[in-house]
Write a structure and sequence with these properties.
Elements (H helix, E strand, L loop, with lengths): L1 E7 L6 E7 L25 H5 L51 E9 L8 H13 L5 E4 L24 H13 L2 E13 L5 E12 L16 E2 L30 E3 L4 E4 L8 H9 L4 E9 L3 H10 L3 E6 L2 E3 L8 E5 L3 E9 L3 E4 L4 H10 L3 E5 L17 E6 L6 H7 L5 H17 L6
Parallel strand pairs: 3-4, 4-5, 9-10, 10-11
Antiparallel strand pairs: 1-2, 3-14, 5-6, 6-7, 8-9, 11-12, 13-14, 15-17, 16-17
Helix pairs in contact: 2-3
Amino acid sequence: SNFKIVVGTMAKTYFILLLFSLPSQAQVAGKVGSDCKFPSSIAPPSLQNMLQTNMTCFPGVYVGENETIDVNLPALSLPPSPGYADVKVNMYTRPYPPKRNQKIRAGLVTSRAGWNSLDLNDTVQMLHTLAQQGNLDLVTLEEEHNLLKMKACSDFPEGWCSLDGPYVKALSSVAAQYGFYLVIPMRTMETTTLPSGEQSTRQHNSAILVDRKGNIVPASYSGAKQYHKIFPVLGQPDATAGEMGGESQVLPGDKGVQVWDTDFGRISILICFDMNFFELWHEASALGAELIVWPTAMVTPDRVIIGHATSLRVPILACGHPGDVIGSDGVSLPQIRNTTQNAATSVAEIDLDEVWIHQDFNCEKLKSLLEANKEIKMDYSGCGMPPTVTGGSANNAIMRIKSMNASVSAKALCEKYGIETAKDYIMRSRQGLNGLRQFSSPIP
């Protein structure tokens, strides 16, 4: 059976298109919507008209939100159906106006003796130690940090936590004491009412963001208080006890990719196995994330995550074992690392003011900017210009500039000189070309 399910939003200038072709034994439940399209009133279709007109998408929800695809167990058997397709097309939502030249200090706390081997006392102590080494803006813990050793401080015997329970309160108080944002990954449980009226208890692999005052930050746009892992590990359909049964009893997230606006920039959170689904990372970038936090149970550095950072040109705070902070060029940033018997920490400075620029239509403007502003340096160089820092590379189609002066913002200068960022350019190209394709029109 073939089904088309489209989810999107009319309120923002992005949309997500999903196409599903499921095995014939699958039974699908959920809303079925129409395509996201430009109004037919655009006549004649022109690139300029399309760039000034929002597409209309139905239903007006986030990707994955309240969209359920129920399949019979045979549909989960191996191998996957060769006819399955999953296609996403994202429209771009720009972040709020750029702040001042913003460099942040971001850190992570993880366990040394395997996944989640820290108890609450160890964790709190390491957060104190980390904060006492210098001001922090953001810290994250590893995936489902509460699940194994913290059952005594959880709200439920199995280690699940509620958002107002002792586990969250203890960690939030440390964040408030030192004034940093804290990502708290944890197993959560929630009760929901099914269409039949029955009460259902659901587990999620989740993460929340706590602000500098210890308060839970609602996600921008959706207002969700947490991110639920969209792709938990499926495992073998016929797994028995002791075998790879995946994340048993964990419900795949139904709130979609989330972003949070902080006082230093916009961030997103994705969790462990989400790494294998590039559309999530693309969507986080399209939603304007300037930094992606990735709590995981895996060994880091990880080549896939390095690839995401490189292709999307976004830094990633990867809290695995021993953890890594990856720059927007895919290179691990200089880090201050410390270890104890049970824990490992890492802190790095992340430049959120750096700008990646595509050479198309920007070379002369960029040359003028660099000539007039000696505080701006270019390490990945292009437009026939040599790199202005030692060890930089030349002849790139996409270049990176940074400010060497805390009082000068590279982002602000790009706006002053009318320089379009590479991210804006690529997303604008996607929007315009998809619009022209809809009307079977060539580029004007």
